[in-house]
Amino acid sequence: MKNIFKQAFHSPRFVIGFSIFACILLTMLIYPLLMPGNPLEMIGLGTFFRPGTYVSVYDALDADSRTIKLSDADDNRLAKAMSDADRISMMEWLAVAGVPAEDIDLRDTHGLISLWKKYYDPSVRPEGMTKAKRNYYERLNNRLVAVTRADTITMLSPDAETGEMEERGRVAKTDYVNVSDVTNVRRLPLGTDNFGRDMLKELVSACGTSLFIGLVAGGIATFIGLLLGLLAGYIGGLLDDFIMFFTNIFTVIPSFVILILISFSIDQSQRGALTTAVVIGLTSWVWTTRSVRAQVLSLRNRDHVNLSKLSGHSLSRIVLTDILPYIASYVVMAFILQISSGILAEAQLSLLGLGPKTTTTPTLGLMMNWAMLYSAHINGAWWAYYPVILTIALITFSLNLMNTGLDQVFNPQLRS
């Protein structure tokens, strides 16, 4: 086994795949140390917060402010208040008001607002314009007025004794606070999901759970396939016919259909990560069995195997010392592919609502299921599903790249 991995690291494909996989593992180990806590903790009172840094407004009011005059501050405020759709709608109103199209420049924020102030009249009801559209224009106008209003906002708070509102302070447009001076700051690089949970922390935890499922499922499937393949290939006879009879039955029936039926028969409260991994492993051994059997059939009549038989060695010794070392590289490659298949199988099951229970630990498939159920793609919350898709793709890509690299090293036909 040591020699196998030593040869494997001579393959550029294996090295690249292993490097990607190692980076994922290091992230899973280090990030929870930097950001401890429950990955399913709901920190947001709402759904799908955008990625970014969130600062406590309450604490920011008490932080020391500094006066900074930025030449583009007002332009940025106006640009933020006007989306592309708003600008197009403003152009439509101005066109109805008789402004020539060549005088309207959607990229000129100040010019557009000047025309808007000059020609917009909320009392005018253009022909064919619905009430909902007129209400939209009123809200847009109020928003622009709020952005361009007085340079200072006055803060009021009730007096503890009289209950009358008293001035607490004033906030000018040129007042800025240093984020490091604010007591409560939370960085959410991937925002929150539909339940208001930190997506990055949840993704790291889900990645670890999915890898655990893949490892357990891959280990079970590889062990069963290796055991049955060795027995069928070496002993042969009735045992070979018996094993291949059941193998062919499972080959004809798609394994994923069996996986769905078994998962459906288990109550969701009983479907933990380990249970899901075991079920996937018990339904994924077929192709490994057939492949190992084919390898053993080509080895059982070799000279060194016949010599061991003549020497009176036991069946277990012949299999372990004269056959297994020759197919060890193939078993490793099969195990890597089984891990990848296990992760993808869990994702497919969870998308169908048949994955692990949702109240304990997240998985990559469950995160996809939540994003789909709460219409993240319709709401434009790309951070709720794109990072998950990318993570699944990176894990499976790295594992398959490692497998291809091993095949390149140990397959004589590919080497030549």
Description:
The protein is mainly α. The protein has two domains: 2-44 and 194-415, MetI-like fold (Orthogonal Bundle); 65-177, no CATH class. It is built from 18 helices and six strands. It has helices at 2-8, 12-34, 57-62, 73-81, 84-96, 109-119, 131-147, 199-235, 237-252, 255-265, 273-282, 286-297, 303-310, 315-351, 364-373, 376-379, 386-410, 412-415; strands at 52-55, 65-67, 152-158, 165-172, 175-177, 185-188. A two-stranded antiparallel ribbon has the order 1-6. It has a two-stranded antiparallel ribbon with strand order 2-5. The longest helix is centred in the middle third of the chain and has 37 residues, at 199-235. The radius of gyration is 32 Å and the shape is elongated. It starts with a helix and ends with a helix. The model has no long low-confidence stretch (mean pLDDT 86).
Which descriptors would you attach to this protein?
two-stranded antiparallel sheet, 2 domains, mainly alpha, 416 residues, two-stranded antiparallel ribbon, MetI-like fold, elongated, 18 helices
CATH architecture designation of the largest domain: Orthogonal Bundle
Helix content: 55-70%
Q: Termini separation (Å)? A: 23 Å
CATH fold-level name of the largest domain: MetI-like fold
CA gyration radius, whole angstroms: 32 Å
CATH class of the largest domain: Mainly Alpha
Beta fraction? 5-15%
Strand order of the largest sheet: 1-6
Report the order of strands and helices.
Answer: HHEHEHHHHEEEEHHHHHHHHHHH
Biggest sheet architecture:
2 strands, antiparallel
Strand count: 6
Domain module count? 2
Task: Give the averaged pLDDT, no decimals.
Answer: 86
In CATH, the homologous superfamily of the largest domain goes by the name: MetI-like
Structural class, judged by helices and strands?
mainly alpha
Count of helix runs:
18
Shape: elongated
